[in-house]
Specification:
About 25% of the residues lie in helices and about 40% in strands. The chain is an alpha+beta fold and about 170 residues long.
Length: about 170
């Protein structure tokens, strides 16, 4: 092999490793530097041969009322990035959504999500929002223990970064 080809292969391999390391670090930043919050969950326990043992989670902030200023007769686009402002619930360690915004709020704690299905609740327009924290993967013994507790309320411990990205840290029984 000539020197130029060897150098090109080394560069290509190094570039791929750097991209993978960057993706890993980007995914871990909320866990390392994020603010810890708790959200009420409504879990469902599926199992998959391909994905392993996991619990699907839904949160009280997963369904949002469409703000009046956004209501122009058109549906909210699918996969639109939105920010949900968060605040502590009264007399609780749980957090609740305070409003949905197209741009990230300039102050306060918020979580970034993507819009999904549009629907109506008692005539009011609503939209589903996903945050990338809807599946909790666990080893088989922990997943079975979680499955046995599904009829009791749970809360998810979430780490939220300053830019609104969130990662699921764990599930705690109330």
């Amino acid at each position: 092999m000539n020197k130029r080809l060897t150098l090109g292969l080394v560069f290509a391999a190094s570039f791929q490793v750097c991209v993978l390391v960057g993706m890993y670090i980007s995914a871990q930043l909320p866990l390392w530097f994020g603010t810890e919050i708790s959200l009420q969950t409504k879990p469902v326990d599926p199992r998959s041969l391909f994905r392993g043992n996991y619990a699907l989670l839904s949160y009280n902030i997963s369904q949002q009322a469409v703000p009046q200023s956004w209501q122009d007769g058109n549906a909210i686009p699918n996969a639109m990035v939105v920010s949900i402002a968060l605040e502590p619930a009264a007399a609780s360690e749980l957090f609740v959504g305070r409003g949905m915004y197209k741009k990230k709020p300039t102050s306060g704690l918020f979580i970034r999500g993507r819009t999904g299905k549009n629907w109506h609740r008692q005539g009011a327009p609503m939209v589903d929002v996903s945050y990338g924290i809807e599946a909790f993967f666990a080893p088989k013994d922990k997943a079975i223990a979680l499955e046995n507790q599904l009829n009791h309320p749970h809360r998810a411990v979430i780490m939220v970064n300053a830019d609104g990205r969130a990662r699921l840290k764990g599930i705690v029984s109330n």
